[in-house]
Amino acid sequence: MSGQVHLERDGRVGRIVLDHPERHNAISTQMWSGITAAAHELEDDHDIRVVVIRGAGERAFAAGADISQFGEQRSDASRNRDYDDTTSRAHAALLGLSKPLIAAIGGYCIGGGLAVALTADLRVAADDAQFTIPAARLGLGYGTSGIGTLMRLVGPSAAKRIFFLADRFGAHEALQMGLVNRVVPKAQLHDAVAEWTDLIVGNAPLTIAAAKAAMTQWQLPEAQRDFTEAEARIRACFDSEDYAEGVDAFMNKRPPQFTGR
Q1: What phi, psi does 121 have (nearest 5°)?
Q2: Are 197 and 189 in contact (CB under 8 A)?
Q3: 38-84 pLDDT, tens digit each
Q4: Where are the domains of the chain?
Q5: Is the pTM of this model over 0.85?
Q6: Residues 123, 102 contacting (CB under 8 angstroms)
Q7: Cα separation of 237 and 149, whole Å?
């Protein structure tokens, strides 16, 4: 079996589930394509306001890319380009979500699995989570975009520690680095993620999408930034029904009911 990606909906919450239990949810080529399809589908679903990505079962988020496929699909630089194109589409689809993406990380979060977690806006880790990027133990060249993403998140010193040592470290060290936002006991992982998704679902989706669009541009090098979309989204907030609803709810001391319009 080469693994599967399941798409789930629970009210306003969409979930992308990495399911490859015999390989600790290692991500096969088929699964990379499944991630792309699931992210696009949830992006187009107006009813979904927040997306969670997680691994199936309790043992792993994702134990990296499926190394059993490397001999066939990454045998040299030429064949690796095709593989990289597939993974890049998956990363771009996750990064392109206008809705917040939360990674729920339990157990192994290794290599390509960690790269997937880095596409999330927020990362909640169980206290049993284990992280590593083992590129230096495999001899492969890690993509510059992935290295840049990690450096922007944790800084050059911590990124070098992760790449040069290629060792495993735990959830609390990841929290100290800024790699994850929150660490909770393993049994509380899904409840902790649900707590955050509930808060996001109750907030104004147009405001969140505008903020995310602006933050995405601020993360780029200055010469590449283009705030056209973010500024259009910000203007749309003030012309929306949600803005009128938010102000009215505040003045009347009641919970707002946002519709995304």
Answers
A1: -80, -35
A2: no
A3: 999 999 999 999 999 999 999 999 998 766 655 455 455 566 577 78
A4: 4-200, 204-251
A5: yes
A6: yes
A7: 29
